[in-house]
Amino acid sequence: MPPLKILTRRAAILAGFGGAGALIWNANSLTLSPSFGRVFDAVEEWTKLSQRTLLLPGELAREYSLADISPTFKANGTTNPGGDDYNLHVAQNFVNWRLRVDGLVSRPLSLSVADLHRLPSRTQITKHDCVEGWTAIGMWTGVQLGLILKAAGVSKSARYAVFHCADNLDGEPQKGGAQSPGQYYESIDFSDAFHPQTIIAYGFNGKPLSVPHGAPLRLRVERQLGYKHAKYLQRIEMTDSFAHLAGRRGGYWEDRGYEWYAGI
Amino acid sequence: MDVPHLAVALDPLSPAEGTRAVARQSPKMPIREIFYRHKALVRLTHWINALCILFLLGSGLNIFNAHPHLYWGRYGADADPPDQAFFSIDAFNTPAGPRGMTDIGPWRFDTTGFLGWSKANGEYTNRGWPSWLTIPSFQDLADARHWHFLFATILVVNGLIYLSWSLYRRHLQRDIWPTLTDLRTIPHAVLDHLRLKHPIGDAAKRYNVLQRLAYLGVIGLITLMVLTGLTMSPGFDTIFPRLLEIFGGRQSARSIHFLSASLIMLFVIVHLTEVMIAGPVNEIRSMITGYFTIRKDHQ
Prior knowledge:
The complex is a heterodimer.
Chain A: H1 3-25, H2 27-32, H3 34-54, H4 83-91, E1 98-103, E2 109-112, H5 113-118, E3 122-129, E4 135-144, H6 145-152, E5 160-168, E6 183-189, H7 190-193, E7 199-204, E8 207-208, E9 218-220, E10 233-239
Chain B: E1 6-7, E2 32-36, H1 40-64, E3 69-70, E4 87-94, E5 97-104, E6 107-110, E7 116-120, E8 123-127, H2 141-168, H3 171-176, H4 180-184, H5 186-194, H6 209-231, H7 234-239, H8 242-247, H9 250-278, H10 280-289, E9 291-295
Antiparallel strand pairs in B: 1-2, 2-9, 3-4, 4-5, 5-6, 7-8
């Protein structure tokens, strides 16, 4: 073996172990480094691409039977938005609550809960997978988001549906340290927005949605983790980018480092 | 698979090609033989796998800390009944101050300082697993998930390369899969291991039955980790709903994921101990350069 080749191999081995050592030693600082964050973004993109490739269009998340419903359904995040406005809506049984649909649409809508009740409904018993690791199974009733979006006439340039919520979850700063407004928001793309199981739910386990679970309206997007299922919905904005929204990553938790594509 | 490459040169990186002769300083001296033990692909995938396991265990414990309770079945969100966790770590206020408690089934253990209530950055906090075991060392579910999925992806690609190569080159069938003769030597091998006796001479050229079973076991456990990991993904559950049936639900899958990780941790401890007993320099060098020195006292 020529000596040069030995040197190269030795150098490669040393570089490999050195690199691995540096990775372990610097794991904490790399975690917070914006440039290393691009590696994590690439992994998220790969997850989305692989899942979307394997998912047949319109393939449904598993639906369960009544007997499978879990005895308790944990309410996480905001369990009561509070404030004078919201408390008044609670006192009035949400008769004056409006869900606005606007942005890149040809016919902006303003829907009351009663309006939604008059539309065809879908009831589904699904599991709710929290990013923290827990699971609960519940029955949701509501209107398919696709139906609402078709009624609003979504523009060709729109790419995302953004959900603006009535709850404020401030507390945890954004990634990078900036304290953004803690107003909860979420977003999904058309693959989920027009999925048959993506509904604006007003009913839970056969009753009107309770305050801890997002009264009067919440999103169900069954192929993704719990934090995508925005509660206390006030407005659906059709848009082509997140640039104008809080931390610009498309959601309250996304602004705090969580994946926008929460399929895993 | 190629015929094992034998050489006598002491520099493991430049073996005298094709030599089978052995160096014999004096008739009483043990004969040393340098044996090409690990192929380049096995060595490379081994170290990549080791790095992945390290990051996956560390980030996995950080993720676990976001909800340090395990359940059996389809659902589970609360340690107390009716959901009832069978494994749970938490901190409680007691007259003697906050204590970390770990519940396993009906038993409760005080694990203050390690599980439930431990120091992070000099201050005691309510934390499932302690800071020094997790990646990153600070508690952050989002960041830990990033590391977890990065190394899970590398682990799967690396594992598939290793497995397909090993099947194609018959490494798996020949070197890992135990033969019936191997299985009959289990009691003998267990005794040898307990007496810290390690094979020498030609017997050291092949994996003994306990190694074969351990390596096969860890391949099985990593496969189980990947499958139960995917079962926790709502996206993959839609793609392969069978996964949920196989493992009995997302919470069972999560628990199996944790138990398999514990067994992998056990494997790592035993593996490293064996390396230390068998001769760390020779063993680690053989996994880097491929060459392993065999003592042949009994010939």
